[in-house]
Amino acid sequence: MKNKYIFSFVAATLALSGCTKLDENLNGQVGSGSLGANDVPGLITASYTAMRGPYQAPWNWSALQEVTSDEAIVPTRAGDWDDNGAWRALHLHKWASDDARISDVFRDLNSISYVSTNVLGFNPTPAQAATARFLRAFSQFSILDGWGQVPYREPGEGVTRPSKVRNATEEIAYLIAELTAIIPTLPDGPAHQANKNAARTLLMKIYLNKGAFLNRTAPTFDPADMARVIALADEIATGGYTLSTNYFDNFAPTNDVLSRENIFTSQNLGGVAGSDLDGQWKCTLHYNQNPNGYNGFATLSNFYNKFEATDKRRGGAYTGQTNVSGIRVGFLVGPQFDQTGAALKDRKGNALAFTPEVSIIERDPNHLEVAGIRVIKYPIDYPNSGTRRPDNDWVYYRYADVLLMKAEALLRTSQAGTALTIVNSIRTARGASAFASLNLDNLLEERGRELYWESFRRQDLIRFGKFLAAWQEKPASESKYLLFPIPDNQLGNPNLIQNPGF
How high is the pLDDT of residue 29? Predict the structure, then answer.
């Protein structure tokens, strides 16, 4: 059966490509009826597995959300990390319709949608169908967010014809109806499975971003939509979530046990099953640290400077990591040491001291290896560091995000006092000083501090009307970059319309 699951995933990719010859070869092979009801659990597992590629690690969906923002940069370090300018194009908002990363993410997100839809053609139980429908909605929300239009197929539909496409208005209505319908049937938990509160959180995001998805240059916020955000947050609050005492426990190798606020995660089993989530720390660590990294990703000093010195989210020592390697969690800036306190050096023998200063192209041979503040959001799983399958569960949704979305909906409906109380409860838990007042600007920055490198920043900046602004190492950009282009290799589907400006 394993080959059939893999084939369904590959078929989804080919079905989007518009390649007639390949489509003909697939005729009758997917959804042929050879799978029965007993195979549905395996098909659902295949849907969960399909989510790992585009979502986990920093290379794919995360890159499109973070490297395009003021939170992350991948500087070209002499010949390292040049990649024909692909990383620079993301940060500078200069991507084109032939961008390989954008194309791959579009393909893989649509594959999740297709594989999840495929489950529905094999007589699943109501609970199984609700799970598949949630995973499909989850991936389609990302497609809507990135591209503004969503290809789809009905259960059992052949792949020889172009997929149909919903525009933003149609997709929003569809997602709201889907999630509303399945919430009663979804289980209460656990976090690593589709569950009621995961669906409610996704529904909150749809209502909150609705006005931005419909008009990205001038988002609007209907009071009725904001009321739904608030009501859904109140329903989620009955689930017993609280802010974790240690912020980084939410991302730790044992976060399935330690976290008190994770709502929806992807389960990884150390050394056994998972993805290259270890890329989250390897992308940023230096070659001479433990584990040795790729010395690429960094954050920007202007973003780092938004944190107060007392803010626990800025990081510090973490048991199980710092005592093993000397590496701290959070932001790594200044001299770096091993677990004995010995100073580390770069490959030239200079002190390994990460600098706040970073340029999108680093040329100074004595600076390029240390340029940029590094980020360790997920504590390193040393027992499984050699397997590329760390035990950390990937975090999709946390309760802190729910609280901040509720605060935003309150603020956008002239209830600033209640919103301020919510935001200050988070800031107090994180060791930051309370705000005297709340406005859209400091709420956006608080979302950045709480949710940095969790794949939300681009979406937030668009909703708050800040995505096109100039920031560190990026000039102001054109409005066409509020959407990603439909990849050139998908335009064989006549139902897909290239986004304006590409």
Answer: 30
- CA gap 348, 364 in Å, rounded: 12
CA–CA dist 83, 91 (Å, integer): 14
Which residue, among 218, 330, 303, 280, has the nearest Cα to 474 in the 3D structure? 303
CA neighbor of 18 nearest in space, from 487, 501, 500: 487
Sign, CA dihedral 137-140-144-149, equals negative
pTM (predicted TM-score): 0.93
Query: Tokens at residue 54, please?
Result: 């585009």
Question: Do residues 159 and 11 touch, judged by C-beta distance below 8 A?
Answer: yes
Side-chain-side CA neighbours of 20 within 13 Å: the count stands at 2
Q: Are strands 394-398 and 164-167 parallel, antiparallel or unpaired?
A: unpaired
At 13 the pLDDT is 43
Q: Which long-range contacts (CB under 8 A, 24 or more apart) does 433-442 make?
A: 433/308, 433/310, 438/407, 438/411, 439/411, 440/411, 440/464
- Locate all alpha helices (DSSP H) within 93-195, ordered by sequence: 100-119, 126-147, 168-182
Tokens of 299: 């954050």
Ordered alpha helix ranges (H), 300-371: 301-304, 322-325
Q: State the Cα–Cα distance between residues 44 and 50, nearest whole angstrom.
A: 10
According to the model, what pLDDT value does residue 428 have?
A: 98
Contact 168, 214 (CB under 8 A): yes
Q: Exposed, middle or buried by CB within 10 Å (0-12, 13-18, 19+), for 189?
A: middle
Query: Residue 36: its pLDDT value, please?
Result: 56
Structure tokens, 262: 């994770």
How far apart CA 160 and CA 24 sit, in angstroms, is 6
Q: What one-character DSSP code corresponds to residue 391?
A: S
Q: Do residues 188 and 215 make contact, with C-beta atoms less than 8 angstroms apart?
A: no
- Digit-coded pLDDT (tens) for 390-435: 999 999 999 999 999 999 999 999 999 999 999 999 999 999 999 9
Whole-number Å distance between alpha carbons of 298 and 304: 11
* pLDDT the model gives residue 35: 52
DSSP 3-state assignment of 109? helix
pLDDT of the residue at 260: 96
| Number of helices and strands in the chain (H, E) | 18, 11
CA–CA gap between residue 151 and residue 156 (Å, rounded): 15
Q: Per residue, what are the HEC states of 237-295?
A: HCCCCCCCCCHHHHHCCCHHHHCCCEEEEECCECCCECCCCCHHHHCCCCCCCCCCCCC
* Amino acid 26: pLDDT: 28
The residue ranges of the chain whose pLDDT is under 70 are 1-37
432: burial class by Cβ within 10 Å (0-12, 13-18, 19+)?
buried
Task: Measure the CA–CA gap between 111 and 114, rounded to whole angstroms.
Answer: 5
Are 159 and 30 a contacting pair, CB within 8 Å?
A: yes
Q: Note the pLDDT of residue 30.
A: 38
